[in-house]
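User: Hello! My lab partner asked me to get a predicted holo structure for this protein. The small molecule is flavin mononucleotide, SMILES included with the sequence. Please write out the structure tokens.
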Amino acid sequence: MQKYSKIQIYYFSGTGNAYNIAKWFAAKSNEKGISTTIINIAGIKEFPIEKPSDNNLIVFISPVHGFNYPPVMISFINQFPKGNNDIVLMNTRAGMLINKYITPGLSGISLYYSLLILKLKGYKIVGMNAFDMPSNWLSLHPSLNEKTVLYIHLKMKAKAEKYADLYSNAKTSFPVFYEIVQDILIMPVSLGYYFIGRFILSKTFYANSNCDNCDLCIIKCPVKAIIKLENRPFWKLKCESCMRCMSQCPKRAIETAHGFIFLIALAFNLLINRTIISIFPSTTPFMESFVYEWILQAILFILFLLLTYRISHYLLKFIWYERFMVYTSFTFYKFWGKRYKALKNI
Ligand SMILES: Cc1cc2nc3c(=O)[nH]c(=O)nc-3n(C[C@H](O)[C@H](O)[C@H](O)COP(=O)(O)O)c2cc1C
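Assistant: Hello! Below are the structure tokens for the protein in complex with flavin mononucleotide.
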């Protein structure tokens, strides 16, 4: 028996994995006779969002970034109107392949935080599912080969269709609960990523001299975090590190500045960290704790990074500096593989 008259899928996607799941899920639900719409949250201009009709099923799909949903998705869920619909929460994570086994990524608190917020708004959560799509985090590791990507896509398409079938028959499904212990243990890292890590990552991107100023990265950025400064793309702090710019650049000009970040971290530790911390004397027990020291260090490091990233951006116009940046970026080398694209155009 069909319980829902319509399914509304809200998604965010950097390189197309979450969009693919939305598409596969929607195709199957439509086939089952439930009209399904897919809405890109990065394209929504009008807030507040309209309250969904009562017997619609609402589905949220987004990648996991730093063991949580990306801030753009969190903010969308925070702003979602109150209601009493059934909701399914889904994420796409970093899948890898060992023989025929797709290794699972880590959801962290992505689904639990959203569960809490949406329950407080009056909704009923009827499912929580994770999809281990090919990892797109090319700043961290070389890309997966095409055969692996295709294999994982086929498996995850079948999984998305299975869930579409299940939810259109008014069933519930919470397989992610098997991972709850590791997801809770990893919570401190997800908080660290949200408050500090993501800002550091936003300053690891630059465009090498292959950039011909086509502006595609600026146009395609889902959160409008890239601007043109001194005739070159410049990444602002609100960048979500979603990898779309890197994956879509037709000149393969966008790199992750591994060498730069390493040098900045080293310089910060050797030259600045100790000196500045000693300037702020500890006057309360809290200030003597390692938490205070961490917070202070993180804030100072981000400020230092902002300054040095700006200087680095200026220096990129000199070929000797540009070459230094390029040769110290893993993403520049062939062994790092092709840029990851789940879809040609998103
Ligand atoms: C900045 C960043 C952080 C990530 N963090 C995680 C993570 O914490 N856990 C995980 O399983 N995958 C992580 N990934 C991998 C992506 O979530 C995964 O590849 C996802 O399927 C990408 O979806 P998209 O193509 O829709 O953006 C991360 C990727 C990026 C770029």
